[in-house]
Amino acid sequence: MKGGLLSILPAMAVACALVMLSACGTLGRGYSYNDPPFDDQIELEDLYAEAEAGSSSAMAHLGWRYDTGRGAPTNPIKASQWYQVAADEGHSLAQNNLGCLFRDGRQSMRATVSR
Q: Is the pTM of this model over 0.70?
């Protein structure tokens, strides 16, 4: 058996990379930080109230607002902070979007940790 398991490792690495890229919205039709299932007509004050009550969806939505500038001023530090809080609560879209911020170099680890 020539090559064996080692011969398929490069193909597996490419497949894994494609899956990871598609999760961040750069390939495929998945959600990305530019097109989430959030209603951008909700008032910021209402989102803050829901976030303070513990809604991880509201926390992720606030992160998205500050990330994209839709309904709030663009602020990558606030975006990463809200994404981090929601991600800590297990919100998968916030986890994805936080990873995309770091991947794209739009945020530093220091800004997120120092919240």
A: no
